[in-house]
Amino acid sequence: MYIEQGYKGKLGIWNAFILPVGFILFMTFNYFATKAFLDESGESTSEIMQTMIDQMGTLPFLAINLMVFVIGLIIVFIWVKFINGQSLTSFTTSRSRIDWKRIFTMFFIWAVFQGGMIFMTALNAPEDYVYNLQWDKFIPLVILSLLMFPFQTSFEEYLFRGQLLQGLGIATKSRAISWIVTSVLFGLMHAANPEVETLGPVVMVFYIGTGLLLGAMTLLDEGLELALGFHAANNITAALLMTSTWTAIQTDSVFIDMSEPTFAWTDTLSIFIGYPILLIILGKIYNWKNWKEKLFGRVLDRKEFFEKEGINDPQSTPEF
């Protein structure tokens, strides 16, 4: 019962919305401000990013962008601990302790799969990819990626699949509403990425679909561990192995994609077919049961939850 862990905060669940809503408003303002600037300057997001990279260097540019998420994750943890009064464990999982093995297992599974797909893609179409491995640049990239990308991905997971999923679930008493709304918002958060500008709105299918996958993982496994591992593996592997001049993440990766940017509906097969297969595999590994109830069922109210857990309600104040 991961969503119900939100009841363990010492204040009403209204505080679960403050940071996510604030972040969404900030991203919305940033999106329209950036769009207005681009319309006035006549430049694209990719061109501006390239200018900044040329001035600063690829690695410093990446580090500065990731530092924002380091600060963001620290703020989320401080808020949850001292304002909400919720433990990091109950914020992360419904288990008695955080299952680090789950995080690293999911990280390994997805990193190996995604890495294999990247190498296969590059080998099958060598004319579209430049081999770019430079050890003097790649080793610092590996160190930076392993140190800082987990902050970026964990910030997004704790904000959307943590605070917002728990808060919306308790507010609406619906797992489905909480799952779908947080997934859509997660996708829309990426609307300002240069991929959307280059490939068009169709690429939002990928972002929202990935949000649905991560939300399903969280609800079916009753914790954030798998989503944390998947998200970190996805971004780290991409940053190390393949980037291009028009993506949000640009690094001195092993391969540089030089192909013409396109996104066809056939590219969504990984979402509509691959993601469900991944969930089925994980379901077998972790023996998930009652899928329908976990994804679409009713969220217990406060009294039901604490009675079922067999523990005393730490507060008697209203939820709102």
What do these coordinates show?
The chain crosses the membrane at residues 12-33, 59-82, 103-126, 138-155, 176-193, 199-220, 232-249, 269-288. Keywords: Membrane, Transmembrane, Transmembrane helix. Residues 141-236 form the CAAX prenyl protease 2/Lysostaphin resistance protein A-like domain. This protein has 320 residues and is mostly helical. The protein has helices at residues 18-41, 45-56, 58-84, 88-92, 100-124, 135-172, 175-188, 194-199, 204-221, 225-241, 269-286, 291-296, 302-309; strands at residues 129-131, 242-244, 255-257.
State the gist of this model.
With 320 residues, the protein is an all-alpha fold. Helices cover 68% and strands 3% of the residues.
Features:
320 residues, mainly alpha, 68% helix, Rce1/LyrA-like_dom, endopeptidase activity, CAAX prenyl protease 2/Lysostaphin resistance protein A-like domain-containing protein, membrane
